[in-house]
Request: fold
Amino acid sequence: MIAGPPSALSGVPEVFPRSPGDQASMSDMDKVLATAESGLDKSLERLFQLLRIPSISTDPAFDGDCRKAAQWVVDQLAGIGLDASLRETGGKPMVVAHGGPAPDGKTPRVLLYGHYDVQPADPLDLWETDPFEPRLVDAPHGKEIVARGAADDKGQFMTFVEALRAWAETTGSVPLPVTVLIEGEEESGSGNLGPFLEANRDELRADLALVCDTGMWDRGAPGITTMLRGMVYDEVIVTAASRDLHSGMYGGAAKNPINILARIIANLHDENGAVTVPGFYDGVPELPPEVKAQWDGLAFSDETFLGGVGLKEPAGEKDRSTLEQIWSRPTCDANGIIGGYTGAGSKTVIASRASAKISFRLVGSQDPQKIREAFRAFVRERVPTDCKVEFIGHAASPALVVDMNRPEMAKAAGALRAEFGKAPVMMGCGGSIPIVGDFKSTLGMDSILIGFGLDDDRIHSPNEKYDLASFRHGIRSWARVFGALADRA
Reply:
């Protein structure tokens, strides 16, 4: 079925066989898919080359490897006809490339985003083989690519690089005006990305960003991530006595900061799991009926989802499904409590101070600053006399909701339906992807998030993997998306 080494892609089913007939009767899209299919072995070889580079951004010892990975990406993009260059920053270099036809006012200019850096591979003793020597392994559902970065994010962003390649090799150029931005510090906080966007906003501005750092609903069902939760993170410090006290001499008479914080944290939720901070739900929308109906119809099991981590029952708002709780509803969680004696054995002490770290996941149009202020007012009202409270503010970012009425969204969804034979799930994401907010606030453009990762890809963990079928479907899907956006599907 596929040319190349028989060990590379054998066993990958040809779910979408090529159109019958001679080459002349095939559409551009059919020809591009045929090119992608016949070149899958070489696409895999290129991915393996990139995976062998240990581009760990968090460790200065790998700075040279990060630069090597960035230059490798530049060379690949230049090789398919894009004007590609390595851009210096205060940290790891950026990769920027441009190409495609001149804007015509009808076909959107798109910015493709990914990152070439990876997480450290530690603990190395839990890897079955060298994390930077990629390999194909057999699994019950098919072959898997195992290596650090296979799913996060080298295997993912290489799907759209290889889709661009298929278009260029088939038709002579990519089908739409495109900018490619591949950064090298995503795994270490993207500290230089914001300034880079600001300094190059005119060059990087596009009609739409396409992000490939997300996942599918399951192996057979594609997904488009349409909701990203925001974040507020605050640290609370309560101080009572001027020093730690003997609990026998002062117990009962002296205020105990640990007890005070415990009561405050317990009061943050009511008996139904709702957050009790006044005004907390301002700006929280209800799900569109069609999205709720789709989510309710998914084969999602609370028992399977929670059972995988040793739990049984959802703990959020009782009148909301688990998918709503993790995708479209705001949350409040204590992430850490510090105070008193925590060593071995016992020490009968009343701590002078105690602290807690509290995070809020935000949705809709919740205002991070208002949430922070309301939370702090909630705490102050519950701190008794003889005590003082301090706050340390950390992260604060709004939620993001993708405009599902954009015509590009319908085209992307249609492309995924054509590839998988079923409509994509319009998914939420419980976490945050800060770059999407940066694209909106700095470059003024919306994003469409399409990824091919799976929940069991073990990203950031030993033996990270990416299904070979995900890589194949990803290349074909992006080829279809590019064609649909350019009205050449």
